Amino acid sequence: MSDVRALLAIAWKDLRSEARSRAATVATVFFSSVTLVVLAFALGRDADVMTRAAPGVLWVALAFSGVISAAQAYQSDLIEGAFEQLLTLPVPRAAVFLGKLLTNWLTMTILGWVLLPVTAILFDAPIGSGIPILLLTISLGTLGFSIIATFYAALTANLQARESLLPVLMFPVVVPVLLAAVRATDAIVTGGDPSLAGDWVQLLAGFDLVYLVVTSAIFHIVVEE
Amino acid sequence: MSLAPSRRPAWLNVLAGAAFLSVAIGAYLGLRVSPPDVNQGDLIRVMYAHVSVAWVSFLAVGVAALAGIAFLWRGRSRMDVISVAGAETALLYGALTIIGGMTYSKPTLNTFWTWDAKLTLTALMVALLAGVFIVRGLIDEPQRRGRVSAVILIVVLASLPLNYLAAEWFRTLHPAKAIDLTGGGVTIDGTMLTILLYNVVAAGLMFVWLLVERVRIGMREVEIDARRVQADEGSSEVVRV
Amino acid sequence: MRDACRPTREAARWCVFDSWNQWTWVTVAWLQLPLAFGAYLAYLAWRGRRAGREEDES
After folding, report:
1. Do B239 and B233 contact (CB within 8 A), yes or no?
2. Could you give the number of structural domains in chain A?
3. CB-based contact, C58 to chain B, within 8 Å
4. How do residues A34-62 score in pLDDT, each as one tens digit?
5. Contacts of B99 in chain C (CB under 8 A)
6. Residue B140 falls within a domain, yes or no?
7. Chain B closest CA to A169's CA: distance in Å?
């Protein structure tokens, strides 16, 4: 089986198991809703503050939900020992990594695209004109996040205390991605200077590329026995 | 090979003496010899203590990451020990940088924290290093522990310039207090620069000495564990990090 | 020191530092060095002693 087909097969397998189990979906939807509501209460005294906070709120909800779903990505594999079986296949480790990354990224992007109008409404932040580039920005931000989350989830999968360890390891690494994503979202929504938004989006893409290359190259060390 | 507690080699004592002496001289230079600054007055003397340890903290992370990569390359346990030692000293110097930075910014900028790119980067670096130690504590087998730790350090190394760029662009594309805490916003004349560089070298000497001492202890532990495995007693019951 | 604090919300939080002069700050900053190095050296000594104990046992 060619590497690309293996990659897609792994991604498809994960997507199907997630659609069946719904565990990750329920958790992430619930968690992001709670985050939005709590932040709305915390910031809600000043309507202006709420509008200006909307980009940051969106990414806070996404980031927290992303960590939860990342930890879930390996749970089902570990329980049945499927992960070891997966590794015995004559497929380069990078393909396994990219397959899992694809699923993680797709689910997180869908969540992000759904959260976008919800946040815009709840926080009174008009997003009329910039929707296509907003969707792109969300996709790029979730990509960077997923790369790091998928990598570290594999690393912590064999260790104890992995649920609490994953965010500890992830968050300092994911800061540039989150920062660029929030800044880009903010620049688009406030709509002042289009080149500023472009700058941040390019920066975000650059960060994604660096992390993707580095993690793909060293992933095989993480899962070796 | 006998494991008698090794006496300190002479050169190590010389290094220790040199390190302490140079730090003391650096302090004297910074506290007495340096003129007060035009804008910040005597507070500029804080800068010497703060900036010198900041530079060395990044040197230490570099040492830790490079040693980790060397360990991945050849698997020699000495490289792993150097990597841990570098990470520990990086954590030490990083913590000093942050607390020193707060001690500097409160009297000069009237706030304990600015989201200055360099300080933010240092804070994130400390958080990253904490993660390295937590993971090391969870893995018993030395080879695997060293390899996983090296992998994390590679990601840490990759993230440092990205974090710096992100924080820097956050400040410059975002009109806000953009004050350089390393003294760049302060008129730094020749004498001050010399004194600063001297303090950097002093902090660096101290780092080298601490690193060597830590590596000596680490190698001793490696030998103890290896002996235990040979004698078939299994690995150490002590949690090694 | 307390009576130097003005009752505004902002000033009240950190007013204990208002009475520090520049040399106080400088001293605090430079004292951090021996404290930190001393702490690390103590840690190294502890670790060395632990290794010594293990050596004696094996």
Report:
1. no
2. 1
3. yes
4. 999 999 989 888 888 999 899 999 999 99
5. 32
6. yes
7. 5
